[in-house]
Amino acid sequence: MSLLAEDHADPTLAEARATTKRVARTFALAARLLPREIRDDVYRLYLVFRTLDDLVDDGEPDALGRVVAVEGWCRGGAARTPETRLLAGLDARHGLPRDALLDFCAGMRHDLDGDLVLTEDDLETYCYRVAGTVGITMGALLGTRPGIDARPSAAALGKAMQRTNVLRDIDEDWENGRVYLARETLERFGFLDGAPPPPAAREELLREQIARADALYEEGIAGISLLLSGRVAIRAAAAMYREILRQIEREGYGRRAGRIVVPRSRKILVAARSVNA
After folding, report:
1. Model-level pTM?
2. What is the CATH number of domain 9-276?
3. In the chain, where the domains are located
4. In the chain, what is the straight-line distance between the N-terminal and C-terminal CA atoms, in Å?
5. Cβ contacts of residue 96 below 8 Å, gap of 6+?
6. Residues 50-96: pLDDT tens digits?
7. How far apart are CA 171 and CA 162, in angstroms?
8. How many Å apart are CA 104 and CA 123, to the nearest integer?
9. Which residues fall within 8 angstroms of residue 269, CB to CB, at 6 or more apart?
């Protein structure tokens, strides 16, 4: 069956594919390397996470209700919302880690409640909830070697990517009144009363935070070999995402304000190198 015919037969899958390609361009590139029989379920899973995250970020009135519905499904309730129906189908095929999904919902509640990230431990917890859990759930779809706990490395890779997001979007988030770095860290480097620090202090902060992210990438990439399928795709995704950190370094650690962007040609080169490494 052609993709067009499949999309007509399953409009939710069409939405999942389109959403991934529209808002997760780096991940969409890597997803092309996934086995076909798993790729569409990865798109479906991404749609669940992305929808909940967007509902929360956009302050939609039904955001809390949709999060509560996922929590209820994780605890044995019925699948009554688009997200829970997708999760139920994925669970039937792969067996999802419901504890990780509940932790993801805790991350959504953090944002809904406007909780502050005060310490580096708080940031680590937040990154686990909103992204480490995604890594763990992805591991369930891809399968892992029996007898070995692959969850820590899967969570580490997700946390590394979330920390990368934070550093990539630091100026954009700052302008929108969103602060994801730990308050204690910001104060230590001179981010006081909403005023940006001098360039030297900003560079020191970014160097420290990049080192933290790189350590998580090392831990996460070391665990890719534990996957039963999709190893090439996940390795490519990790390499392309990690390249954002190298782009921050190349651009002088934020001396030019704005969102950090890695050119598509550079992403493809980095992905190819990771596959052949």
Report:
1. 0.93
2. 1.10.600.10
3. 9-276
4. 35
5. 87, 90, 137, 140
6. 999 999 999 999 999 999 999 999 999 999 999 999 999 999 999 99
7. 16
8. 14
9. none
